[in-house]
Design brief:
Elements (H helix, E strand, L loop, with lengths): L9 E9 L9 E4 L4 E4 L5 E6 L4 E5 L6 E4 L6 E5 L4 H4 L1 E4 L2 E4 L7 E3 L2 H4 L18 E4 L10 E4 L12 E4 L2 E3 L10 E7 L2 H4 L10 E6 L5 E14 L10 H16 L42 E2 L13 E4 L6 E4 L5 H4 L4 E13 L3 E13 L6 E16 L2 E15 L5 H10 L31 E21 L2 E20 L2 E4 L2 E3 L4 E23 L3 E23 L20 E23 L3 E12 L7 E12 L4 H5 L4 H4 E15 L11 E7 L2 E8 L8 E14 L3 E13 L2 E5 L8 E5 L2 E17 L3 E18 L13 E5 L4 E5 L10 E4 L2 E4 L3 H8 L3 E2 L6 E2 L1 H5 L3 H4 L3 E2 L5 E3 L7 E2 L5 E5 L4 E11 L2 E11 L6 H7 L41
Parallel strand pairs: 1-7, 13-16, 47-51, 48-49
Antiparallel strand pairs: 1-4, 2-3, 2-5, 5-6, 8-9, 10-15, 11-12, 13-14, 15-16, 17-21, 18-20, 19-20, 21-22, 22-23, 23-24, 24-25, 25-26, 26-29, 27-28, 29-30, 30-31, 31-32, 32-33, 33-34, 34-37, 35-36, 37-38, 38-41, 39-40, 41-42, 42-53, 43-44, 45-52, 46-50, 47-48, 53-54
Length: 994
């Protein structure tokens, strides 16, 4: 007998809504019975093959999953309830993750929305003002530049110390060449209980970057394009050519009162001198690229140059002689800088998967033009992350990440280039009579367009990351993950100088060529055993034990030569083989770390939490003290989960919805800053009396110990009114056996030694607040604010017999004790980052001011001692060559000890050089599919020396332009000015900008 069975099967349709009634897009709808899946569309609708009795599950990130057993095939309406995201959010830790509600250490997560806004070459700038205690300082405007990042005041005496950067388990040297579009999350581990799992390399904190991976459900393709425009942020307004000539010639006249020889500049060849020429003695037009007398335009007007007025030249009355000057104006910035530069960022990604495998792939192109001409940062990135369930109990996780980067920087370094482009003298002629661009003074200070194409610079970096992991699930609660990662970082530089004009009439024809190649291969292998169990209904244990081996091998070579036959060949093989024309070098180094680690998380009824962590590292850099152990413990109490919280506290629980206290104690180590073979010492060759011998160039230091850090922290986390998330933390960190360079006396035979040099302390407070102001179906508005206070202090230094075991420093007068005290340098009990300066009490505006201030006074802080004009007049002719008179318009300095002498003892404390307070604030608003956000960061409680402003207002270079603040300097016609008299090269005279 043949029996046939038929089952009714059709298409199930339905809608998925949130508990607020909005359509949910991208919800994964899975028929667990038939193993087929679908996703909801933009209206929340889905269609899925199904039959009566099938089990259908609905899952979406941020919502509780729902399961339905079909009773019929009528259209379904499913409502998913939103999770408490703040509590259910999963935070990445070392070698694992944990729900935020169970977290007991100090970990902050970057709001993912920040990465989606703005155009940036790397994710570091996204951290500015977003993570409490993390200071992000942009110190360069170069395309692709990465800011400096310091967590909780750093661990070095100078306040420095960069966190450890880990991308998908791979240690990176920084944020360079990481595509923000590929990042799923950024977690910052702060306290030692969280960072102890990384042991020796985590003393400055850890930043964990996790890239995106595929998700179960339908596949999708995403394309994004961003374009940005960069303009220069210039805090100075520079003078035009006429004002430059007026103030510069007047400043030389003022300085010439004290050194008459300086007056020769007024008639010499130069930017403001009148010795420049348009014709030679034979009546031939001079070429400024051949003759320096034809570079600058400033001349006295006469019949030989009057015709230049028809070519746009200008005239003015010379403030020194009263004669008429002729000149033209040249704006270097028009040739050295782009008016604006563009940044383009394009990314295409694909992701998808099913219950057996998921994938994520992305291709990114980032191109940023620099403001200096012909500078750029160009990056191509590709990432492929795949997860595949080989067997029900074996899962494969694969990663491939590639970055290909090219860049070009200014030839004359960023700082020099920008100061020249903006502050160079504006009286250069610009072009010769043939219409050709003039170089100017020389290749470094002149117009870069003349030579820029003569300097070939090819910079290339490639980063390859490959990772493969297998997770074996022995049981539901026991698994082993074995992982290997390989990170290849290789850089190739090429440079060639064609024949170029060095200065008028002077060509450099050495045709120097150079090339270098550097490669680092870092391999990491680890195995991690995970076990979790819940027993007696209330006790939960999550344990992890692991082993890791890290190997980093660096090698490279470099070569240079000169004398290539033509500008057409930059090949090193074509450089001259004459003696001393070529050089070559190669190098290699290896560093290894062996580690054992473990972590135990214990949870009692979601109320009492404990995390125990330990790591033991063996470090090849050290010699006699290679092994170190770094434990950590943290405790948490979810008070709001206690029965009495709702029952006994009544309405308080309605206002404070969640409340958790936590405390931690942990240890880290550090050997940062030590070269791979530094402690072994080194020998070098020396030539003595014609004989080559060997001598020790650095000492062997086998006994150097780990730098040991102990961090204690207490914190509070709360949710208020179901809208405000508040986090408070207080930390105290002690660094013992600080590794630092100690300067030795000359009699030692060595200039310095690396040693364990004392103990220091960091302590501070952090506050983080997020306020959901509006939460409606089509409109949301949130505000966030964070702030952090940090203070550093030296606790202990090696005994050296002086007060506070001081190293370095200087003496100042203390008005309280009426004695000289040592400040600055490194001293026990003091902040190592302090600033002292001379205090200006005003400007000498009248003769009465001059007599009252300067009578009987001597100021040793000028280039020569400064005295009252009457005292100067009484000096012999020989002595007058050793002093300068104090004059109207000079600065009055506070004589702190009242001894009638201004010297180094009169400096006063003006503040800290590192911020006491850092933080940021911002808002995020969305209406339907539109969003608007803004973010700000700040640093308070510190002082900084404005070197460029002093440099320009002191005319310290001697010919460069100055700023419009010179209009408010003291003159007889402007006695109430804000600034003192404008001197030429003030550092050679009164040194008022000290």
């Amino acid at each position: 007998m043949l029996q046939l069975s038929a089952y009714a099967q059709s298409i199930l349709k339905g809608l998925v809504r949130s508990d607020q009634g909005t359509a949910l897009v991208g919800v994964s709808v899975s028929n667990e019975t038939q193993k087929v899946t679908a996703q909801t569309d933009k209206d929340g609708a889905f269609a899925l093959q199904a039959k009566v009795g099938d089990v259908i599950t609905f899952t979406s990130v941020g919502y509780e999953s729902s399961t339905v057993t079909l009773q019929n095939l009528s259209s379904l309406l499913v409502t998913l309830r939103a999770l408490n995201e703040e509590l259910e959010e999963v935070v990445v830790l070392g070698y694992g993750s944990i729900k935020k509600s169970n977290l007991t250490g100090s970990v902050s997560r970057l709001d993912k929305r920040v990465l989606e806004t703005g155009v940036r070459s790397n994710p570091a700038s996204a951290l500015a003002g977003t993570i409490p205690g993390l200071r992000v300082q942009q110190v360069s405007g170069r395309p692709g530049a990465v800011p400096n990042i310091v967590l909780r005041g750093g661990t070095s005496y100078d306040g420095s110390g960069s966190p450890l950067i880990i991308v998908d388990g791979v240690v990176r040297g920084g944020f360079q060449d990481i595509n923000p579009a590929d990042i799923e999350s950024i977690d910052v581990l702060k306290d030692a209980s969280a960072t102890a799992i990384y042991g020796a390399r985590a003393s400055n904190g850890v930043i964990l970057i996790t890239t995106k991976r595929g998700k179960e459900g339908g596949s999708s393709i995403d394309a994004r394009a961003k374009v940005g425009v960069n303009t220069i942020n210039l805090p100075f307004e520079f003078l035009n050519a006429e004002d430059y000539l007026y103030w510069t010639r007047k400043s030389v006249q003022v300085s010439g009162q004290y050194q008459p020889s300086q007056l020769n500049q007024l008639t010499a060849v130069g930017p403001f001198g009148t010795g420049n020429r348009y014709y030679d003695d034979g009546g031939n037009i001079l070429d400024g690229n051949q003759n320096s007398a034809a570079v600058w335009s400033t001349m006295f007007l006469d019949d030989t140059n009057r015709h230049l007025l028809n070519e746009g030249w200008k005239t003015m009355i010379d403030p020194v002689t009263g004669r008429e000057l002729i000149f033209t104006e040249f704006v270097y910035a028009d040739y050295a800088l782009r008016n604006a530069s563009t940044t383009q960022d394009y990314n295409v990604s694909m992701q998808g998967g099913n219950n057996k495998g998921q994938y994520y792939a992305s291709l990114g192109k980032y191109d940023e033009k620099g403001l200096p001409i012909n500078t750029y940062y160009d990056r191509l990135t590709f990432i492929l992350n795949g997860d595949y369930k080989i067997k029900p109990f074996i899962t494969s996780n694969s990663t491939f990440n590639f970055a290909h980067t090219k860049w070009r920087d200014p030839i004359n370094s960023e700082g020099n280039y920008m100061s020249r482009a903006l502050g160079a003298p504006p009286t250069m002629r610009g072009r010769n009579h043939l219409g050709e661009l003039l170089l100017g003074r020389d290749w470094a200070d002149g117009n870069p367009q003349v030579n820029d194409d003569k300097f070939i610079r090819r910079n290339l970096n490639q980063k390859f990351t490959m990772g493969q992991a297998f997770t074996i699930n022995f049981f539901d609660n026991l698994s082993l993950r074995a992982n290997g990662t390989w990170f290849l970082n290789q850089t190739h530089y090429e440079g060639f100088n064609k024949d170029y004009l060095s200065s008028p009439g002077s060509w450099v024809r050495t045709r120097s060529s150079s090339a270098s190649y550097d490669k680092t291969l870092s391999q990491t292998y680890n195995a991690v055993l995970n076990y979790n169990e819940k027993f007696a209904d209330r006790h939960s244990v999550d344990a992890m034990a692991g082993w890791e081996f890290y190997d980093s091998y660096n090698n490279g070579l470099s070569a240079s030569g000169s004398g290539a036959p033509t500008d057409d060949f930059m090949d090193l093989g074509l450089t001259s083989n004459e003696a001393n024309r070529r050089s070559i070098d190669s190098y290699h180094s290896r560093q290894r770390i062996m580690s054992y680690f473990g972590r135990l998380n214990y949870d009692y009824d979601q109320r009492y939490l404990m995390t125990l962590t330990v790591r033991r590292d063996g470090y090849s850099t050290l010699l006699d003290n290679r092994w170190g152990t770094f434990p950590g413990i943290s405790l948490g109490w979810n008070i709001s989960n206690e029965s009495f919280y709702r029952e006994k506290l009544g309405s308080f629980g309605d206002y404070v919805n969640n409340l958790k206290l936590r405390a931690s104690l942990g240890a880290n180590g550090n050997v940062g800053g030590i070269g791979t073979y530094t402690l072994q010492g080194a020998y070098g060759t020396a030539n003595y009396d014609g004989q080559v011998g060997y001598n020790m160039t650095s000492l062997s230091i086998p006994g150097l110990k780990w730098e040991s850090l102990i961090t204690k922290e207490v914190g509070l986390e709360a949710k208020l009114l179901n809208r405000i998330d508040l986090s408070l933390a207080y930390y105290h960190r002690t660094t013992s056996d600080k590794i630092a360079t100690l300067v030795l006396p000359s009699s030692a035979g060595f200039t310095s030694i690396t040693t364990n040099n004392g103990d220091m302390e960091n302590k501070g407070l952090e506050i983080d607040l997020n306020y959901q102001i509006v939460r409606k179906q089509d409109w949301s508005l949130s505000f966030n604010w964070n702030t952090a206070y940090n203070r550093n202090k030296i606790l202990k230094l090696p005994y050296n017999g002086v007060e506070n075991n001081r190293q370095g420093g200087f003496q100042v007068y203390d008005p309280n004790t009426k004695e000289l005290v040592w400040v600055g340098g490194y001293q026990e009990g003091q902040d190592p980052n302090v600033a002292y300066a001379y205090e200006a009490i005003g400007i000498i505006r009248t003769q009465e001011d001059l007599d009252r201030y300067a009578t009987g006074l001597i100021d040793y802080m000028g280039n020569r001692p400064l005295v009252h004009p009457d005292a100067y007049a009484a000096l012999s002719a020989a002595d007058k060559e050793r002093y300068y008179p104090i004059a109207l318009g000079d600065v009055m300095w506070r004589d702190v000890n009242g001894d009638g002498v201004i010297n180094t003892y009169d400096r006063v404390y003006v503040g800290n050089t590192k911020p006491r307070w850092t933080g940021g604030f911002g808002f995020y608003s969305s209406w339907k599919n539109l969003s608007l956000s803004a973010r700000f960061d700040y640093a308070l409680g510190f002082v900084a020396y404005d070197g460029p402003r002093a440099w320009f207002l002191g005319m310290m270079q001697g010919t460069f332009n100055t700023t419009k603040e010179v209009f408010d300097t003291w003159t007889p016609d402007n006695p109430n000015a804000k600034y003192p008299t404008y001197y030429w090269a003030d550092q050679l005279f009164k040194n008022k900008h000290k």
